[in-house]
Give the backbone structure.
Amino acid sequence: METIKAKRLWMALAAGVAALVMALTLVGCGPSDEEAIKKAVDSEMGVIVNPDEETINTLAEEASAGSDGALSTMGIDSTELVKSWIDGFAYEVGEITVNGDTATAAVNVTCKQLGPVLTTWQTNFEANAQSKGFTTMDEIYAYAGQTIMEELNAAQQTTTAVTLELEKDGSNWVVSQGSANETALMNAMIGEY
């Protein structure tokens, strides 16, 4: 599997998750702006912490579409890939800063970062695949899929500090739908690559 295709797969999957998280409409209510902002962030991030079947299916579809057929070729079930990736996903809201009708929330995101997983997999795959004596491309692709899932299943979570932007919508606070939030979440979920 080419590195460029692998990068596109991980980027598409992370973008899908970030887009899903950012696409939800949030309503915050409470006695203070800080509490309303925390509730808005909780509503947004909770979708990944405790995903329902619809969320898993949406993310799996994003992964399949973003892989351009690579997951299928390697025998990777996109649903299992998503479940493994978001297993252990957590977050903690820290300092909240309100500035009129805008705000920021410092959030520590804990998850399996796909970049390091893919980097480790690629190094190990290149070192081991030739010694396996494969005779067909199907065998190589199957081995690639198997070892990618092994790396992802064994990956440890990493905590990354991100800053989310929020805005006031009437009397409610919502997580902004801008690219800054999507980029921040993608960076947390992908990591160094």
In short: The chain has eight helices and four strands. Strands lie at 90-99, 102-111, 158-169, 172-175. Residues 21-30 have pLDDT under 50 and may be disordered. Helices lie at 3-23, 33-49, 53-67, 70-73, 78-86, 114-128, 137-154, 179-190.
